[in-house]
Amino acid sequence: MSRASRPLRVLVVAPSRYPLRQPHAGGLEACVWDRVRWLQARGHDVTLCAADGSDYLGDVPEFRLPTPAWTRPEESSDTDYPLGYAGAVDAAFEAARDRLIADRHLYDVVDNHSLHPAPIRWSREAEIPVVTTLHTPPLEPLLEAAEQVRDSAHRFVAVSQATARAWSVEGVDAFVFPNGIDTDQWTRGEGGTSWVWSGRVVPEKAPHLAIEAARAVGAHLVLAGRIGDVDYFEQEVVPRLGPHARYVGPLRQPELCRLVGSSAVALVTPMWEEPFGLVIAEALATGTPVAAFDIGGVSEVLAGMPGSATVTPGDVVALGRAAAELAARGAREPLTRVWTRRAAVRQHSLAQRYREVERVLSHTAQPVAARRAPAVSW
C-alpha cells in the first residue's frame, strides 16, 4: 500500500466559538463537521479539537475548547466575545499544544480550520506537519503566525481563488481547494413558489437586502438561520418581516434541505468579501436556482451552473429581477432543476473535493526528505 493510501492519524482543529453539531452555527462549522465524518468514513484515525458540546469529540480533555458564556442572550455576537473569553481560549490552546507535544507520536498531521493563530504555530512548536485552511479574508493574528512558520512543515490551502488572492497580497501563498457538500444529504427538491434565504443572520450576510429584493417584485421570502447579531436582527430584519417575509430560525440539515428544495429561487446577499458561500452549493444541489451578489468567491461557486445569476452587490432591484427571471424559467422548464442538480454534484460533491484534500494531508504528513509534489491538479 502506498504512503498516500495508508490511513492517517489526523488531529482536526475546529473553530472554537461554536460546537460542531446540527443545526450548524454557520458554513464553516458545517464544513469541518463534514470533514471529520468523511475522513472517518475513509478509514482515517481522527481526533477532534473543538468547542465543548461538539459531535465527534473524544476523551482528551485538553482538546475540548471553551464556548462563550453570555450573561444575556441578546448580547451574543459572532464578532465580539464576553469578558474573559479570549484569555480562556488562549489558555485552552496552550493546554492543547502541550498535550499534542506529549502525544506527538500519536498523530501524523494537523488539519487546522481554527481562526486562532495558535494551531498554525504548532508546526514549529510541536514539530508536527500542519495544513491550515483559510476560510476567511486575511486576519492579522493569522498573518503574524504564518510569518513565524515559514521554515516549518506547514501548508496553507484556501477555499476559493478570491480568498487565495487576498492572502497572497499579504504574503501568504495557498493552494485552492473549494469547499464541498454532501450531495447524498442535499437532495433535489421539486421547487415551489416562495423564495428562500439561508445563512447566518449578520450584517455582512445582509438578509435584510434579500427581503427588499423579494418585496420589490412581490415575492414571498422565507429566511432560515442562526441569529449572529441580535441588534442587527431586531433593527434591520424584524421590521421587514410580515406578509412578504417570515423568519423560521435555525434548521437542521434535513429540514433546511426540504425548505431550500421546495423554493423557487435562493437569494445570496453577501456584503463582504465572501470567501466561498456554502449556501450557494447547497441550494444548487437541491436544484434550486441562485441569484446572488457578485462579490468574493461567489462567482467561482456559480461558474458553470445553469440555474444562477449574479448582480452588483447591494443592487436589490437587479437582484429581485434576476431572481424573478430564474423562478419563472424554472416554472416553464422543470428540467432546469435536474440540470442544476447534476452540475452541482459534478462540481461541488464532497467526495470529489476531499479526495484532493486527503492527498494534501498525506503529502504534508510525509517526512520532508520524502516529499514530492502530490499527483493532483492544483
Description of the structure:
The chain has 378 residues and is an alpha/beta fold. It contains 13 helices and 13 strands. The chain has helices spanning 27-41, 85-102, 118-125, 140-148, 161-169, 207-216, 230-237, 253-261, 278-285, 298-302, 316-332, 335-348, 350-365, and strands at residues 9-13, 45-51, 64-65, 109-112, 130-134, 154-158, 175-176, 195-198, 221-224, 245-247, 265-268, 290-293, 308-311. The strands form two sheets. The chain has a seven-stranded parallel sheet with strand order 3-2-1-4-5-6-7. A six-stranded parallel sheet has the order 10-9-8-11-12-13, with helices on both faces. Helix 4 (140-148) links the parallel strand 5 (130-134) and strand 6. Helix 2 runs parallel beside helix 3 (118-125) and helix 9 packs across helix 12 (335-348). It is globular, with a radius of gyration of 21 Å. The two termini are 24 Å apart.
